[in-house]
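Below is one such record:
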Amino acid sequence: MGLKNQKGQTMVEYMLLMAVSVSLIITFLNSDFVKKTFGTGGKLGMMIKGNNQFSYRHAFATNHPPDIPRENKDGKSHPSYYQDNGDTRFFGPKDPYPR
């Protein structure tokens, strides 16, 4: 004796497949690896935060000169803006402004 109506079997299979997929994704997102890398205080987030702070403070995007240590967070010492010889690392006009 066989079933003549199999309507809904495909829907049940897709629902089971979705339940397994969602449970795998949730398990991965709650893993220690993801939390250590991307979570609050994670390695990747802290690295990006440090690079952004340094870039904003010292006007360098990626490569920083050896005269400014990466750990320099002192606001009073700003060698990127004004150096001992009077130069600055910020861009300015090529020619003086016309008067």
Notes: The chain has a mean pLDDT of 76. DSSP finds three helices and no strands in the chain. Residues 9-29 form the longest helix (21 residues). Residues 11 and 17 are 10 Å apart (CA to CA).
